[in-house]
Amino acid sequence: MTLVSSDLARAAALLQQEQLVAIPTETVYGLAGNIFSETAIKGIFEMKQRPLFNPLIVHTHSLENVSQFVREIPPKAAQLAEAFWPGSLTLVLPKKNTVPDLITAGKDTVAVRVPNHPITLELLRSLNFPLAAPSANPFGCISPTRPEHVQQYFDGQLKMVLDGGACTQGIESTIVGFDKGEPIIYRLGAIAVEAIEAVVGPVQILNKKEHAPQAPGMLSRHYAPNTPTFLVDNIQEFIVQHPNKKIGVLSFSETVAAPQVHALQLLSPTANLQEAMSRLYAAMHTLDALQLDLIVAQRFPDTGLGKSINDRLQRATKGKY
Ligand code: AMP
Ligand code: MG
Q1: How far is 283 from 279, CA to CA, in rounded Å?
Q2: Is 216 touching ligand 1 by the criterion CB < 6 Å?
Q3: pLDDT digits (tens, 9 = 90+) for 131-189
Q4: Protein fold of 3-205
């Protein structure tokens, strides 16, 4: 049995014993282990069935602490850390030798983040090592945003989920790397491109087609429900084209009614992108559990957080069917 509990001391003790604990962050729940423990880190890759070439994000409690793991922080990285930490921004920086190769998949850079969740910050402050914490789901599946999602994925395999309630951001962090000091967005995420540009000026978004994936979040199929899922501009039209199916609808702000619509997840009745983002994965989990024939999601306005939501919906709907 996997215990869902808010017992911080127990979580810390397990981590000190090189075991894994699922931890809450404001983005999604992470499957956490001591970055210096080979046992723990191999355990993360095994439990998630994650390929070893996918590097992990190092989570720590402060910018000051990051200098233990990185060789240099370019000025624009420092500005971004200052603006967004603790928060949903991951910085990819040149690593020191102290960071094990298993964490970085042999790269000479390391991804670091200070998450913005009070319980996890307290946990990180109580430990004398940082935590690697990829999303607490089997590789390729929908990320968990509530303790029960983690429990469903790993019941019996994991001793403890540290209960921090529902994630307030609800999608993964935005990952930013640097080339000659200039920021490049490796993965869209919970901080909008526009918010980053407001701090450091125009940034490039890595073109997936031209580059090999730098981050598994960039693999074309990821974050996917088991139910065949489609992303469309016009939900009504899609429904009419599928008259004999049991359909689940994932809609931004508009209600949809038709006999074939068996479930509707309305992400934000007031059309608030932040609210829609925070509910996205939980809605996908809910629809995926209903044994529907199809899930259809509405494309979001392609600006601000809508761009990040569309990125996840695209990956959830790519290929396979
Ligand atoms: P996850 O925690 O599963 O959302 O994944 C963490 C993300 O950070 C993955 O997409 C990693 O590939 C990415 N990442 C970690 N280290 C690096 C690195 N050195 N360079 C580029 N991306 C990285
Ligand atoms: Mg993940």
Answers
A1: 6
A2: yes
A3: 999 999 999 999 999 999 999 999 999 999 999 999 999 999 999 999 999 999 999 99
A4: DHBP synthase (3.90.870)
CA–CA distance, 80 with 75 (Å, rounded to integer): 9
Q: Is any atom of ligand 1 closer than 6 Å to the C-beta of 172?
A: yes
Ligand 1 center–CA 219 separation, angstroms: 11
Ligand 1 atom having least distance to the Cα of 50: 3
pTM (2 d.p.): 0.95
Element (H, E) at 251: strand 247-251
Q: Which one is the CATH code of 229-316: 3.30.200.20, 3.40.50.1100, 3.30.420.10, 3.40.50.11030?
A: 3.40.50.11030
| Ligand 1 neighbourhood includes 107 CB (under 6 angstroms) | yes
Q: Which residue in 218, 225, 221, 226 sits closest to 53, CA to CA?
A: 218
Q: How many CB atoms lie within 10 A of CB 134?
A: 24
* Average pLDDT score over residue span 290-309: 97
Give the type of residue at 203.
Answer: V
Residue with the nearest Cα to atom 12 of ligand 1? 215
Which numbered ligand comes closest to the C-alpha of 215? Answer: 1
* CA 78 – ligand 1 centroid, Å: 19
Confidence category of residue 197, pLDDT binned at 50, 70, 90: very high
User: What pLDDT is recorded for position 217?
Assistant: 52
Instruction: Give the closest residue (by CA) to ligand 1 atom 9.
Output: 215
Token duo for residue 91: 């910085």
Q: Is 92 in the pocket of ligand 1 (CB under 6 A)?
A: yes
Percent of the chain past pLDDT 70, that is, above it, reads 95
